Amino acid sequence: MSEQELSLKLFVVLSKAYKVVMESAVKDMKKHGLSATEFSVLELLYHKGRFPLQQIGEAILITSGGITYTIDKLEAKGYLKRVSCEEDRRVTYAEMTPQGQELLQSIFPEHAAVIDSLMAGVTAEEKETAITLLKKLGYAAKQHKRIKKT
Amino acid sequence: MSEQELSLKLFVVLSKAYKVVMESAVKDMKKHGLSATEFSVLELLYHKGRFPLQQIGEAILITSGGITYTIDKLEAKGYLKRVSCEEDRRVTYAEMTPQGQELLQSIFPEHAAVIDSLMAGVTAEEKETAITLLKKLGYAAKQHKRIKKT
DNA sequence: TATAATCATCTCAAATTTAAGATATTTAAT
DNA sequence: ATTAAATATCTTAAATTTGAGATGATTATA
Fold it and tell me: For A65 and D10, how far is CA from C1' in angstroms?
């Protein structure tokens, strides 16, 4: 296979793996009334604490409109609140409420188990290798985007 | 890292790699007036010839509503037409028109080059490894889904 | 042959995502 | 201190995707 054919193949296989894995993961998130995007936001706040809206978008790769939409939803559900930044009045933080904390504490372990069982059949070594390669691929694609823009 | 942590990490890295790669790929497809889904359908027909609608959905992982929507779009653009199956009257094929053929002939090489340049920075060996692992992961996730359903 | 179950496609409304642009704030340059 | 450029968030309409259910066709079974 030529280099280009390899790239195309990788592109196709990446898309399929993502979609198949995501389909089951989303099913689990839906059980708790959360979309994939909502879950990602809560997971981020759960692990990193309060976070500026803009940076949430950068972290989970959604557009500004998507940020507003998702944060609105989560705020309406009572899982987080907007807190404006004192130092920079352009900035708004998203901060988990106690209800949000409780939710994640209660559902995260099961979620982790679902993801893990999804990936049974791939060994720990293989996962490590895949993580390394996908990180590298993601980094390469990000660079490509940056360069194109310039 | 525990097995479960590895799985979670892989899940996150897979999502990010997919989204970053897709973002640039979609930008290229848009240049030719095609969405990612539309492009996938045309690419499939280009390589495999006429194909039943249902099976298109299975191949590129979109729901039945999405199939109808996308095929409608492509038919309106004149790139394919619906052809009903003689043997089984439930079935409708999607079949590329000469215009569709021409379009793909003209844009596919550039598309392949874009995908390839996106992935510069990952060696051929690494691509091969990634392909193998992602196939395995996709397969594992598909099995998981099948089992869950039973 | 009825009947039930399955299958392929379509319809439609609701949910979500995207893209472009508006507003307010901050930073940098003159 | 102005002005211009950059940044963060929000608004809105359009595009897309999802999910549930309708319809028509086929297959399997009693």
Answer: 8
Domain ranges for chain A, please list them: 14-119, 122-150
- A61 part of contact set with chain B, CB < 8 Å: yes
Chain A residues with beta carbon closer than 8 angstroms to that of B135: 13, 17
- Kindly list the residues from chain B whose CB atom is less than 8 angstroms away from the CB atom of residue A113: 4
* B4 to chain A: closest CA residue: A116
Residues lower than pLDDT 70 in chain A: 146-150
Ordered alpha helix ranges (H), A32-123: 36-48, 53-60, 64-76, 98-118
Return the structure tokens found at B56.
């298109």
Cα Rg, chain A, nearest whole Å: 18
- Looking at every residue in chain B, the average pLDDT score rounds to 94
Q: Note the pTM of the prediction, 2 decimals.
A: 0.93
- B133/A137 CB distance under 8 A: no
Report the distance separating Cα B75 and Cα A134, nearest Å. 36
Q: Does the CB of A115 have a partner CB in chain B at under 8 Å?
A: yes
Q: What is the mean predicted confidence (pLDDT) over B24-51? A: 96
CATH number of A14-119: 1.10.10.10
Closest-CA distance of chain A to residue B33, Å: 20
Alpha-helical regions (H) of B3-123: 3-31, 36-48, 53-60, 64-76, 98-118
pLDDT tens-digit series, residues A91-110? 999 999 999 999 999 999 99
- Give all strands of the β-sheet with B80-84 in edge-to-edge order: B51-52, B92-96, B80-84
- Is the C-beta atom of A88 closer than 7 angstroms to strand C? yes
Is B16-119 CATH 3.40.50.620? no
